[in-house]
Amino acid sequence: MSDVQYDKLIVQEVAPRDGLQIEKTWVDTPDKVALIDALSTAGFSRIEAGSFVSPKAIPALRDGEAVFHQIHRNPEVIYVALVPNRRGAERALESRADELNLVMSASQTHNLANMRMTRDQSLAAFAKIVELTRGTAVTRNGTVATTFGCPFEGKIDEDLVTSIVDRYLELGMQGITLADTTGMANPRQVARIVKRVLGRIPASALTLHFHNTRGLGLVNVMAAYEVGARRFDASLGGLGGCPFAPGASGNICTEDLVNMCDEVGIPHGIDLDKLITLSRTLPALLGHEMSGQVAKAGRNKDLHPVPDGIVCM
Amino acid sequence: MSDVQYDKLIVQEVAPRDGLQIEKTWVDTPDKVALIDALSTAGFSRIEAGSFVSPKAIPALRDGEAVFHQIHRNPEVIYVALVPNRRGAERALESRADELNLVMSASQTHNLANMRMTRDQSLAAFAKIVELTRGTAVTRNGTVATTFGCPFEGKIDEDLVTSIVDRYLELGMQGITLADTTGMANPRQVARIVKRVLGRIPASALTLHFHNTRGLGLVNVMAAYEVGARRFDASLGGLGGCPFAPGASGNICTEDLVNMCDEVGIPHGIDLDKLITLSRTLPALLGHEMSGQVAKAGRNKDLHPVPDGIVCM
């Protein structure tokens, strides 16, 4: 890091989707709406507000239509819906999502397990979804899940990732997300892949989606930012998890990311105090502690009175 | 990060000292000895095995003499003792510590609260301790606590930090540790300060001690490594905490750090599988979960069978 003026970092908040999808506790529709409405006033330009997946597959988000209809739309916010197939796209369009996030895995095994489709079948479905959105204002983002590693296959060929990015661009995706679905990325790999993909698309069209499963989420953000990435997914409180690692972290934590930006001097436009206050409501809503740190520790500027006795060595 | 050959990163394991000092649960001497003995066979070249502080101040480590006498010394390992004053140094020398780690805070307020001494009084005490060790094989390390921020005073003047480093060197310290005592460092600041201090001492004499209180521990490691730092403190399981933030993380987690090194390709000489196995014994010993991630999530190479049903989007 050198002493320079930093470009703005864009955070897409994903707690209402990636955060909630794995929760065992049912969150009532009004609570989901209240969470999204609160996030809508915190300075985010993008919120992934839900997914339109089979309710059998992800029951926690089965009320996607109701949520999208009941939220108060902030005209400055793009409300994104995750969509795995054509049926999901139709539901998202009926629900007036601003953007469809189409997801498939670089790993064939992972895509088959998740989507019950081969990658080619996913891409064929996406071509039809793109047709559905032609002539509308709805934008399309293509996510490459398991870009940095697959929990079943292990390492993922980087040429495969860039070939999927190319297919997405041919299909008419306006944005690309590279997703570290189960937290296997490392900063050296991230810098290498991000540089390759930024040879194909501008930074304004690329989102990085990191998980903190092995503690490297924010390390990977800095590695990606340093080679030019500017858009990142993050989840309030670090809400979310990993189905293979009970107790391990999921998505990187939004307030930890925003706090890092504040300390380094990277502009972001988000109200960190509001985020911390909101994050501190999540344990009561969901019945467990969050993995994020800043909501527990406070900000650097929150000084403490001098106590009696030794504090720490 | 570029595709280069990386220099070795040296990890000093501090769980037996910084990890245990804040624990509410008393750990019996044989359990402490067993922990240190296990760590002694995991590839570490340096272990901070205890502190010689007033037993009233830190009762959890009141058995320092017994621990140092009962451990099986691996001749490849330097066993370090933290020492705040002359009485502590005498106890450490009687206990055959290989190195004394002398600690004072850059923050006057923090040093007064912790040590009941001004910085000048600490430095005067250290001068006498240095005399005690002259003509022995015992080495001396000077730690600058609160280098990157103080929970009472806030920001710390960087010139003050380098002036303390200079005083330490004049006193005859052979090593310097810059400590982020309550997790307030950020990567930009770390790079700046490490560069300044590496203008005074070689990388082989500088240790960085980071806490993960606000989620930036490993980010700061990478920032320091990239500008030339090569020695880092870390604590098994992330054992340790912060007296001001119940539930927040303490020291950076050794196995998370070592796993990052493995993934990036930084050599370290430590047996990660052994660390993970050992870390997984800590919750039963101490009665709570650890903050480290890799012991929960496993390594990237620990692949999973393909489950029935959707895994994650």
From TrEMBL, chains A, B:
<dbReference type="GO" id="GO:0046951">
    <property type="term" value="P:ketone body biosynthetic process"/>
</dbReference>
<dbReference type="InterPro" id="IPR013785">
    <property type="entry name" value="Aldolase_TIM"/>
</dbReference>
<dbReference type="GO" id="GO:0004419">
    <property type="term" value="F:hydroxymethylglutaryl-CoA lyase activity"/>
</dbReference>
<keyword id="KW-0456">Lyase</keyword>
<protein>
    <submittedName>
        <fullName>Hydroxymethylglutaryl-CoA lyase YngG</fullName>
        <ecNumber>4.1.3.4</ecNumber>
    </submittedName>
</protein>
<keyword id="KW-0479">Metal-binding</keyword>
<dbReference type="InterPro" id="IPR043594">
    <property type="entry name" value="HMGL"/>
</dbReference>
<dbReference type="InterPro" id="IPR000891">
    <property type="entry name" value="PYR_CT"/>
</dbReference>
<dbReference type="GO" id="GO:0046872">
    <property type="term" value="F:metal ion binding"/>
</dbReference>
<dbReference type="Pfam" id="PF00682">
    <property type="entry name" value="HMGL-like"/>
</dbReference>
<feature type="domain" description="Pyruvate carboxyltransferase">
    <location>
        <begin position="9"/>
        <end position="276"/>
    </location>
</feature>
<dbReference type="GO" id="GO:0006552">
    <property type="term" value="P:L-leucine catabolic process"/>
</dbReference>
<comment type="similarity">
    <text>Belongs to the HMG-CoA lyase family.</text>
</comment>
